[in-house]
Amino acid sequence: MSIVVVVGAQWGDEGKGKIVDLLTASAAVVARYGGGANAGHTLVVGGQKTVIRLVPSGVLRATPTCVLGPGMVIDPAVLLEELDTLIARGAMDASLSRVIVSDRAHLVLPHHMVVDRLRESGAGAIGTTKRGIGPAYEDKVARRGVRAIDLVYPNELEAKVRANVDAWLPTIRALGGEAPDVGALVATLREQARRIAPLVRDASDVLHDAKKRGANVLLEGAQGTMLDIDHGTYPHVTSSTVLSGGAASGGGLAPTDIDRVVGITKAYTTRVGGGPFPSEMAEVEAERLRKAGGEFGAVTGRPRRCGWLDIPVLRHAVRFNGLSMLAITKLDVLSGWDPVRMVVAYELDGRRLERPPATGLDRVVPVYEEMPGWSGDLTTCRSWGDLPARARAFIERVEQLTECQAAIVSVGPDREQTIIRQSVFG
Ligand code: GDP
Ligand code: IMO
Ligand code: MG
Fold it and tell me: How many other C-beta atoms lie within 10 A of the C-beta of residue 123?
């Protein structure tokens, strides 16, 4: 039995959803440990595509318990919509007996989204997903957040929501927005609470019980290492701890419970939103890669910025997540590119850097390495030996440069389009 964290090693959208769905075949519990509906995790099973934003990506498997962990910020409207879609699809029964919402998770309220949108229309915009994530985490840290447990006590809800709205009024007014109608907001929340409150409990019990009986547990990250509030490209980051360091408290366990950490990386790099991106391609090349890889936001539909694989970013991910192994996705997308390139270091003011600096990433000069490319359809490869020798050499070079083994190589969006070289659960 093992407790395994799955974390994005780049700027998000690495294919975490696909890998979590795959690994959940052997897990009893899957818990999302951070973020909210800023995430869009895509699962493809038998050619059918599902995009998940809040519920863990193990949901399409028949039995695992799906936990929305204490580190998350949950928009009740998005949650109900997502659950209804999953019920309609037959992925879960109407009793929702497999879904648990942590009592300690915070709520994203409509005015959080209003503030996020207003800020993003001004000079300080960083290209957020406009889902109210930043303002909801601001409330959490300011100790005035509304939590999932508050939905269980509807009589006390109004005072909490009113105090929360009051705290935002000066900001909303300064940004030119309208004050929310607290009465209407509370009425909607009470309505939503009728369905959500029965799912709310101390989620850590479920994880600890699974651990006690020796079952496998997955802790699913959202976003990616370079969007982490501490170690990402600040201030162009999200507002939560993305790294595996946050998986324990954000999921409902202790750091010593974690056995392994799997870092997910594409065979190249993408980023949505603003901020430095040293290996970004010129638009002509980026457009080709975007088309080949379907690089458009799973939720927002925004075109993703595209670039070559960035090894300093992966070294950063290996160090700060304590990666035990890598899962490299989208190798199939690089077929037909010759040569293939990767950034192996940066130069900044005459100094060579092996990892991203705290500032100045927008000024670094990337040091590239080229390798001969490969061609042909990789999506039918199912074993290491099926891959072209040059594709294997590419993966081996990544392993060498990052000092981390690629346990999984993904060659297509479908669950089946995967090469497993090493078991993740040990
Ligand atoms: P996540 O946020 O990390 O779960 O990733 P997203 O779902 O936002 O984006 C990853 C995209 O790549 C999705 O459209 C997946 O279906 C797709 N994908 C995942 N793995 C592969 C792969 O190995 N090859 C190809 N071609 N697509 C993949
Ligand atoms: P998944 O889980 C890619 C980015 C936004 C923006 C920054 C801050 O699908 O990998 P936020 O709305 O969180 O305040 O935006 O973070 N971002 C993501 N980029 N994938 C994600 O999630 C992201 N979640 C947030 O584009 O640059
Ligand atoms: Mg995504």
Answer: 5
Of all protein residues, the one whose alpha carbon is nearest to atom 9 of ligand 1 is 13
Strands 418-420 and 73-74: unpaired
43-55 burial: b if 16+ Cβ within 10 Å, else e: bbbeeeebebbbb
- Cα(309) to centroid(ligand 2), Å: 19
pTM for the complete prediction?
0.98
The number of the ligand nearest the C-alpha atom of 73 reads 2
Question: Is residue 66 a contact partner of residue 99, using CB atoms and an 8 Å limit?
Answer: yes
Which of 24, 42, 382, 418 for a ligand 1 pocket mutation test, highest count of atoms within 8 Å of Cβ? 42
pLDDT at site 426: 85
- pLDDT for 83-117, tens place per residue? 999 999 999 999 999 999 999 999 999 999 999 99
- Cα(39) to ligand 2 centroid in Å equals 6
pLDDT tens string 344-381: 999 999 999 999 999 999 999 999 999 999 999 999 99
Cβ count near 337 (within 10 Å): 18
